[in-house]
# Entry
Amino acid sequence: MNKLIFRCMVIVAVILFSPYRAFSDLDRNKVSFIPPDGKILLIIGQYKEAIDAYVEKMGHTPAGIMVYTSVQNAEGIYDAFDHGGGAQHLQYELEKYPDAIMQVGLYMVDVLEDIISGTYDDNLANIGTWIKNAKRPVYLRIGYEFDGPHNHYDPALYVKAYRYIVDKFSAMGVNNVSYVWHSYANYTECPLMDWYPGDDYVDWFAISYFNLIEKFRDQIAQLAREHNKPLMIAESTPCGIGVTYGEYALERWFEPFFKFIDAQDVKAVSYVNCDWEALPMWTGQGWKDSRVEANPVVKERWLKEVEQEKYLKASPKLFSLLGFEQEQ
# Structure
């Protein structure tokens, strides 16, 4: 038997027969916070200055703000922290944009076994407390891009760590969080579902939309339909294309992007609006400038798209539209 096939079979067996609590036994109130039919959450990221610049230049506040922290350090929550990819400051975003949801990427590379063993319980408690106190819908991408080769997550350990975090937050009574299973949407050696924590632990399916192969994005969209889950574009940017040459950018990236959103019934769109080359973490890697306000042709087309009524923005009514009612 091929060694790779044997390894994947072992992984599936571990997942299937590992301890697993049915949804009815979970302590949390499972809510997906899905927009009404025909509506799409517009989410902008992915660091403090870029988000503020977008709001100022584009004249609207998006429905959601995209931010990041890690299991290892729980950094960037109450104080700004910059790894070289722009300042993360979750509490700042929470206070500056009171009518917007939060979309949070939770980094946990190389610590899956430590998560499961309880090493990072204090950090998880801090993160869970912040989410609970946010008093608004929070969409949490646990171990985002789980299948990306850059993250090298072992599927069985990823599933256990993901479930561990969900169970931890459930025990804390964190009920305003929707859990997002975020795929890199590219080629993988093992079957994609080897990383799947199960329907009772996943509220949304999600993909990255950069400049990768279309068939893998379509695969995730199909899986979302099969599992009756809403689909989110959790990260997107015109990688390798940028916005400098406006018409070229529209033809090669933005128009296919908008077409995918409609064709696949995407319910949340997260766009990274930044000049990647200006960030030390990303300089020279070919990500280019993705700021939609940086090119007048792109800006005009972007506004024409997102100013349609179907795209939700921040508003006092947004949370109720998503089925969230703040506890008194």
Observations:
- The radius of gyration is 19 Å.
- The first strand starts at residue 40 and ends at 45.
